[in-house]
Design brief:
The protein is built from 38 helices and 25 strands.
Length: 982
């Protein structure tokens, strides 16, 4: 969220922020105006680059429309200003699981026969109320058994995923929703030719939502809660909010709710909540994309005009008392230690809170902030950052720091506070303010034309009740703030006593109580069913969108700069550029390459320090990045075209002239060791290692690294030599920006700065995927409430002829919420919150294809979950409706997709790697209409069914002792050193 602020010195000294904001707003080029067209009045802001129109319909519904013709798609949000903050205190988590239920349909869709389903749902509602008020364990068990029995009968009349099929048929992408403290938002990205269909479905969706299939969906919410009980960062956030907001529901309630309340749901309470908060005067429809606002507002009015406004209860809370002494909390978990600090500020609409973005950027901007320079660059901390969390009632300035080896969390706290002291004492350069303004300008340019970014900003503006004109004026207002203003503000709000500190320590949290699995009978999944409503929506006419494929001969320029290949795409929208030097060498060729690139962050030249380089890049609003992959490396610079030559010169200077820094080197090696130790405590990293072991064997790309002894034997000069050599390796140059080819040829300099021959780095090891011959289990122990399982099977070399079938199969089988895997394992059997499967084709023609599948589940569901996935890997269920839904989605998604900008370059290179001479989407689009379920079944039989798999299993050994893992295959329990290689 972007927050804006301006300060006038006399007003500041009197702390009269509001008066000044009003005075400056009168002078702003962004002024609210009103207009009307075809009977609809709207407000807009003059000179708004998004062109947003703000409508309020007669029933109070807010509609915000921003037109952008860049591609024939529309990002949509439907928001209600209600979230966990407004959950009833006896039913926390309610807003979140209501969000889940709004995917289940109404009496018109999602039901085979409403007249038969309705009385069964009434029984379920009554049973849940009885369950909610019963405390006796045996009686509760008996009631739940009845709920499960009646739910099974009701499911025979339900169509579990009809909403997903409706949206899939439209070519929608990213169907989702999210709940936060004071908002619940429903998300869709649709082609612009299905607006009528979209609005018809959404209007029906919110008319009379039916809480069908509740007990299986609630089980998915249980799983989501258990996942978060295993997330240390989530527990840290909850501890911070509980301590800093003792009087507000921000701190008294969590988004997912308490375990006790999740065990005791009330459908009656859910309905009451819906009727209270899902009213038009509390909701907004936000759209950004290619459409005619005047036509769309009429359609929205027609579709949602049935809604009736009603008073919405105001959230009343006791004001928080000032924090006058430091407050401490401790969170224990298996991941690495770190410290989080929070300073409380006023809410989003307060002028004081509007300084938070700037203050956070002063401290941390990933380049030249005080913490970046003084704590990260100097390697006093492993990592450090500052960021604002701006909410309606209150806000937080959050600081986080991770310790280096041997450092205590109290020492981390002292270092973080030292940067606060610098703000308070004015110990910073005014150049930093100028740099922040330049980077904000670049950020605003980058956002324009990006539908999701524009729509999300407008969404935040609505739910936080901010002034869009002030939002737009942010960069100008920012440029008026002085060093004195920052110092005054920091002294007003930031001290060494008014904070909350959460210590994340390592250990086993014995206080975590997971949500226990109830006995659930799988419900019926009516895959072949369609409601009358579904057919009506499908019959609504739509104007076809003509696809646009990349022409590799026309849409990018290919030329030589001396003897270097250059690929260029001209940016005709704005002044941003991106320049990349790409090298056909990677970590497989030299283990030191990645280490050298990491070391570059801490290097300078004889004339300029590392800190100075960071500050100059940031002042130019240029992002400098370097990275090394397995077989390729890249160095890139991006920013404003006006600073192109200065940015490139700075990059060249650093890479060619960097010199060894022994002090930085010693700290860097210790830093690497600490990061590697932390990785061993990260369950995500451990699973990555298991998967690499499954694909490549004991020696694999994941553990292809230096041992600690090899690290200790390194010298700073070794890494600097690698960097200097890299600068003389022959690159491929990729450019996206406003310069023409002729301009680029004049202005672009080769990376190599001498006449010597290019440096040829010797090619190293070549890892190849190993054939999957037998069923095996690779197990790693990790103390967690869930168990994660990933299936791996390597298949044949890349086959371009399979690309259409693979795209179709993935959509049907395991990708997305409408897929067979998701609907069976989550919707029907309630075995997981997250589950998916896919057939993956490699990025290079010489590499192997693979089958991957995943499920994360409670340990007591492990057997059922694994058996459930194995059944689907063995037999492919048939759904004619599902097949047609995926076909429609693929065709419409491909037709409305527009690949632009740097994506043209990456698409071309990807095609080259695969041996393709044209945009592969054309062949997929042309073949999809010909494919049938039988084609998918044949593919499944040939590539997936009854084949050996390697099971990568991560979980707590004691919870899996009775799981008979040996039934899945030969077991190999891997140590962390085997997984990581150190």
């Amino acid at each position: 969220m972007r927050i804006k602020f301006n300060i006038c010195k006399k007003v500041l000294l009197a702390s009269a922020f509001v008066l000044l904001a009003n005075c400056l707003q009168a002078q702003s080029r962004y002024q609210w105006k009103t207009d009307s067209s075809d009977g609809y009045s709207y407000r807009y802001v003059s000179n708004d680059p998004t062109g947003a129109r703000f409508y309020t319909l007669k029933n109070g519904l807010t509609v915000i429309l921003s037109k952008n013709i860049k591609q024939p798609r529309i990002q949509t949000y439907i928001a209600t200003k209600a979230g966990s903050k407004t959950d009833p205190k006896e039913h926390t988590g309610l807003a979140h699981y209501l969000e889940h239920m709004l995917f289940k349909g109404t009496d018109r869709f999602g039901s085979l026969d409403w007249s038969k389903e309705e009385p069964l749902l009434a029984q379920i509602y009554a049973l849940y109320e009885k369950y909610n008020h019963t405390t006796d364990t045996a009686a509760r068990r008996a009631i739940y058994k009845q709920i499960d029995l009646v739910s099974g009968e009701a499911s025979k009349f339900a169509i579990p995923n009809e909403y997903d099929k409706l949206m899939s048929n439209m070519g929608a992408k990213g169907s989702n929703a999210f709940t936060s403290f004071e908002q619940t938002v429903y998300v869709e990205d649709i082609p612009n030719n299905v607006i009528d269909k979209y609005l018809s479905v959404q209007a029906e969706r919110f008319r009379n939502p039916v809480l069908r299939l509740f007990h299986t969906e609630l089980e998915s919410v249980y799983e989501e809660k258990n996942i978060n009980l295993d997330k240390d960062d989530r527990k840290v956030t909850e501890a911070m909010f509980e301590a800093i907001f003792p009087n507000n529901n921000y701190g008294k309630q969590t988004v997912l709710g308490s375990v006790e309340h999740l065990k005791n749901p009330s459908l009656k309470a859910i309905q009451q909540y819906y009727q209270t908060y899902y009213v038009p005067n509390n909701m907004a429809i936000i759209m950004s994309g290619d459409f005619d606002p005047e036509a769309v507002i009429k359609r929205i009015d027609q579709a949602f005009g049935y809604m009736v406004s009603k008073p919405v209860p105001e959230y009343i809370f006791e004001q928080e008392k000032p924090i006058i002494h430091p407050v401490s909390r401790t969170v224990i978990g298996p991941s690495a230690e770190y410290l989080t600090m929070g300073f409380r500020f006023p809410g989003a609409a307060s002028p004081d809170a509007q300084m938070l973005n700037l203050v956070a950027n002063m401290l941390s901007n990933n380049a030249a902030g005080l913490m970046d320079i003084n704590l990260v660059k100097s390697q006093k901390l492993l990592s450090a950052e500052a960021y604002p969390q701006i909410l309606k009632d209150y806000s937080i300035l959050t600081l986080q720091g991770s310790p280096v080896e041997g450092q205590t969390l109290d020492e981390v706290k002292k270092l973080l506070l030292s940067e606060i002291y610098k703000l308070r004492n004015g110990d910073f350069s005014e150049d930093l303010l100028t740099s922040i303004v330049n980077n904000e300008k670049k950020s605003e340019i980058r956002k324009l034309g990006n539908n999701p970014s524009v729509a999300f900003d407008l969404l935040s503006n609505f739910t936080s009740e901010l002034d869009w004109a002030k939002e737009l004026d942010y960069t100008h207002l920012l440029s008026t703030i002085t060093k004195e203003d920052i110092v005054h503000f920091a002294n007003k709000y930031l001290s060494d006593r008014n904070y909350v500190a959460v210590y994340k320590r390592q250990g086993i949290d014995t206080g975590v109580v997971r949500v226990v699995k109830p006995a659930i009978t799988p419900v019926t999944v009516n895959r072949l069913a369609e409601s009358v409503f579904f057919k009506q929506i499908s019959a609504i006419a739509e104007q076809p969108i003509q696809p646009h494929w990349i022409d590799f001969n026309q849409d990018l320029s290919k030329f030589k700069l001396l003897d270097l290949d250059v690929l260029a795409v001209r940016n005709q929208e704005n002044e941003l550029f991106n320049l990349t030097y790409q090298f056909d060498i990677g970590q497989w060729d030299n283990k030191l390459l990645d280490l050298g690139i990491g070391y570059l962050e801490f290097l300078g030249t004889k004339d300029k320090s590392s800190e100075k380089f960071s500050q100059e890049f940031y002042k130019l609003a240029s992002d400098f990045n370097a990275s090394s992959g397995n077989e390729e490396s890249m160095i890139s610079i991006s920013g404003l075209n006006s600073n192109f030559e200065a940015s490139v010169d700075l990059l060249h200077d650093l890479l060619h002239q960097c010199v060894a820094d022994e002090v930085a080197f010693k700290s860097y090696i210790e830093r690497i060791k600490k990061m590697r130790a932390n990785e061993k405590e990260d369950k995500g990293a451990i699973m990555q290692g298991l998967k690499a072991y499954a694909q490549y064997g004991a020696k694999n790309p994941f553990n292809f690294t230096l041992t600690d002894l090899e690290l200790d034997a390194l010298k700073a000069e070794d890494l600097v030599a690698v960097l200097h050599n890299l600068a003389h390796v022959k690159p491929r140059i990729l450019y996206y920006g406003p310069q023409s080819v002729s301009e680029l040829m004049r202005n672009l300099k080769p990376l190599k700065n001498d006449s010597n021959a290019y440096y040829k780095m010797a090619k190293g090891v070549k890892f190849e995927e190993k054939p999957t011959i037998d069923n095996k289990v690779l197990f790693a122990h990790y103390p967690m409430k869930q168990t994660e399982v990933f299936w791996v099977r390597n298949t044949g070399i890349f086959n371009r002829q399979l690309m259409p079938t693979v795209a179709f199969f993935n959509g049907y089988f395991g990708a997305g919420i409408g897929s067979i895997v998701f609907q069976t394992l989550r919707e029907s059997k309630a075995l997981a919150y997250t589950t998916y499967a896919y057939y993956r084709q490699p990025q290079k023609k010489e590499n192997h294809e693979m089958v991957g599948a995943y499920i994360g589940t409670q340990s007591d569901k492990f057997k059922d979950a694994v058996n459930g996935m194995n059944e689907l890997l063995t037999d492919l269920p048939e759904s004619k409706v599902g097949v047609e839904s995926v076909r429609e989605n693929l065709l419409k998604s491909l037709a409305s997709e527009r690949i632009t900008g740097t994506s043209i370059l990456s698409s071309y290179l990807e095609a080259q790697h695969r041996g393709l001479s044209e945009d592969p989407r054309r062949a997929i689009f042309e073949e999809i209409p010909k494919l049938t379920y039988n084609d998918l079944k044949d593919f499944h039989e040939n590539k997936i069914s009854r084949k050996p798999y390697i099971y990568c299993i991560l979980g707590d050994k004691k919870d899996l002792k009775d799981s008979n893992l040996s039934n899945l295959g030969d077991i190999k329990e891997l140590s962390l050193s085997e997984i990581f290689g150190y």
